[in-house]
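Why do we bother with a discrete structure alphabet at all? Because it lets us treat a fold like text: something you can write down, compare, and reason about line by line. To make this less abstract, here is a complete entry for Mini-circle protein. Read it the way you would read a sentence in a foreign language you are learning: slowly, and without expecting to understand everything at once.
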Amino acid sequence: MTGELANYRDYLTHYRETLERKCAGLSPEQLATKSVPPSSMSLLGLVRHMTRVEHFWFQRALVEVEGERLYDDGDAGFAEVEPTEEAVTLAWASWREQVSLADAWLDRLTDEGLGQVVTFRQGSETSSVRDILVHMIEEYARHCGHADLLRECIDGTTGE
């Protein structure tokens, strides 16, 4: 597939896969290991945060689904991360669900739809679909950089 939308989707897919790779093979304790005080950032927190980001931009802003924000913990998904298998399983299941919902919405979009302007946050903000996709790529790229540093501190693994 070619075109502007295909390009954005390729980058978004790449960064989603990068986040998964950065977390692969780690125990719940390792995934919940916080970076440096006073930060609450951890790899598991990043998964939860990106779940929240996917949900906000695709479900709340673009699809206009009402309801509570995901991981509305006052720390954008980073707070209260538990080092348990159950917490890890739930975080990944939630993330995969949001990615699947976003991809289903994107499957119906065309290059021509990228310029569509949407209104969100109770009508107080607007953005084009294009800008939202670029923001999603930027959000993943930034946090994949954090994930790279976190992973290196946990077990020395580097790359990408």
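What the structure line is telling us, in plain words: The domain at 4-8+27-155 is CATH 1.20.120.450 (Four Helix Bundle (Hemerythrin (Met), subunit A)). The two ends are 24 Å apart (CA to CA).
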